[in-house]
Amino acid sequence: MTDVDAAIAQVHRDEWARLVAVLARRFGDLDVAEDAAGEAFAVALEKWRTDGLPPNPGAWLTTTAGNKALDRVRREGKRDDKQKQAHMLTDRPAEPLGVIDDDRLRLLFTCAHPALAMEARVALTLRMVGGLTVPEIARAFLVQETTMGQRITRAKAKIANARIPYRVPEAADLPSRVAGVLAVLYLVFNEGYLASSAESDPVRADLTGEAIRLTRLVRTLMPYDGEVAGLLALMLLTEARRGARVSASGELVTLDQQDRGAWDRALVAEGHALVRERLASGQAPGRYQVLAAISAVHTDAADVRDTDWSQVVALYDQLVRLDPNPVVALNRAIAVAELDGPQVALALVDALTASLDDYHAFHATRADLLRRLGRSADARAAYDRAIGLAGNSAESSYLTRRRDELGTSGAST
To answer: What does the UniProt keyword field contain (predicted)?
Structure first.
């Protein structure tokens, strides 16, 4: 990749969400916004390779995309009346701004509208706000590209047909809307923190950064909502470890092996402060607050040997009651292994086979426990299964090395 191509790729990461959001507000049509943004980047790729990047790439893209969108609207006769024409030409918002004026946040609440199914909300947000391609999103959802493309198309059509407004809800409507938004933001963050596609960077700071930025904005809307604070704390404490998560050779570095001196201490301190704030509130915590508390215990330990595993297991016990799903149970079993040993944990993990047999982390966890128990042949088989299911290149590299370290012999039962 040339320096210009790399710069254009960076501009795409920085500007895609803002550009689509501005166009969506201006024209009130996600198809127009997405297509015009794509056309603008295509023109930029050709022109900037010859002329170099303009002084303000974002402004250049906004102007170019706006012109492309206007051409399409005029060509297709989408202007309903003179008022809409004036709106598009002067770039005035079509809807009330709500309690905060931010184009990307406005687009986020639109994509996460409860009229859409949750899977459609996440997919649409990943595409429109996160800038992921349809193939990347399809891999994240383990579905065919055509299926995902149709899902996103139907979601956009429903927004248009139901006349879902492009705005942040009014203050009175926020409590009933925020849970869905938080779920979407969490999934966007996770896709950035450990990307599901083997073809993309294993860690995408653009997505984690955007998820954190948008979550901060949601917190300004609802400063006393515990789950908003909890999700922000969880993201910050997770993001703090990003620089230590992947080695120079592109391999995943697990928590117990990370250089804790490379963690971002400012983010750790901010995350811990939010966790303490929620504890001091005396209110019963929700799912994100408990997850943040678990992460706080991990990031509070100067060395993995200092981790308070009894506290981690107790927090997972609380999380299981709030969110009784097999992935939570799997993560609890990992903590139990540190407290009660791998044999106890393996029994807990094996009980989840029917629910998690297609989940790579399930097999990676089994492989590690089997390795610790000296069952090398069984561990190798589990690693093979995990590698076959893993989509992230850093994770695949790590699992492959761990499997190869076992050799070809070992006990099996």
So the answer is: Sigma factor, Transcription, Transcription regulation
Considering the segment(s) 1-94 as one domain, its CATH architecture is Orthogonal Bundle (1.10)
Please state, in angstroms and rounded to a whole number, the distance separating the CA atoms of residues 197 and 194. 9
CA distance 349 to 326: 9
Return the CATH number of the domain spanning residue range 324-413: 1.25.40.10
Task: Kindly report, residue by residue over 212-261, the tens digit of the pLDDT.
Answer: 988 998 898 888 899 999 999 999 999 999 989 989 888 999 999 999 99
> How many CB atoms are closer than 10 A to CB 127?
25
Place of tokens 């570095």: 253
pTM across the whole model: 0.77
DSSP codes, 290-349: HHHHHHHHHHH-SSGGG--HHHHHHHHHHHHHHS--HHHHHHHHHHHHHHH-HHHHHHHH
Does the CA dihedral 312-314-316-319 come out positive or negative?
Answer: negative
Q: Which two tokens stand for residue 252?
A: 């995943």
Give the residue extent of every domain in the chain.
1-94, 95-195+205-223, 224-310, 324-413
